[in-house]
Amino acid sequence: MKEWNATKTEYQKDQSIQEWLEGQAQRSPKAVALVCGEEELTYEELNKRSNQLANYLRQMGIGPEVRLGFVWSAA
């Protein structure tokens, strides 16, 4: 399994994950970003969905100072 998952990559330390994702979505919008079973998301789709989630959380009054946990369910 280690050989298959040897994906260590150096990232810019002066950039947040949000900034990196925005940039990647601009550079390679149609490239596959995530794969879960049969579903694939491009960087463009991932960026769109993450923005939708961020907007929803803001509407619920959840800001950057609030710790938030997620539970994944592949129903």
Task: Tag the structure with descriptive keywords.
75 residues, alpha+beta, two-stranded antiparallel ribbon, 2 helices
Please explain how this structure is put together:
This protein is an alpha+beta fold and 75 residues long. It has a domain at 17-59. The chain has 2 helices and 2 strands; from the N terminus they run αββα. It has a two-stranded antiparallel sheet with strand order 1-2. A hairpin with a 2-residue loop joins strand 1 (32-36) and strand 2 (39-42). Helix 1 packs antiparallel against helix 2 (43-59). It is globular. 4% of the residues are buried. The mean pLDDT is 86.
Describe how the helices and strands are arranged.
Layout: H1 17-27, E1 32-36, E2 39-42, H2 43-59
Antiparallel strand pairs: 1-2
Summarize the model shown.
This protein is of the alpha+beta class and 75 residues long. Helix content is 37%, strand content 12%. The protein contains two helices and two strands; from the N terminus they run H-E-E-H.
Question: Given the helix and strand composition, which structural class is it?
Answer: alpha+beta
> How many E-type strands?
2
Q: H/E order of the elements?
A: HEEH
User: Roughly how much helix do the residues carry, as a percent range?
Assistant: 25-40%
Please state roughly what percent of the residues sit in beta strands, choosing from under 5%, 5-15%, 15-25%, 25-35%, 35-45% or over 45%: 5-15%
Name the strands of the widest sheet in spatial order: 1-2
The count of helical stretches stands at 2
What is the alpha-carbon Rg in Å?
A: 15 Å
**If you average the pLDDT, what whole number results?**
86
| Backbone shape | globular
The biggest sheet amounts to:
2 strands, antiparallel
Uncertain regions spanning at least 5 consecutive residues: none
Distance N terminus to C terminus? 25 Å
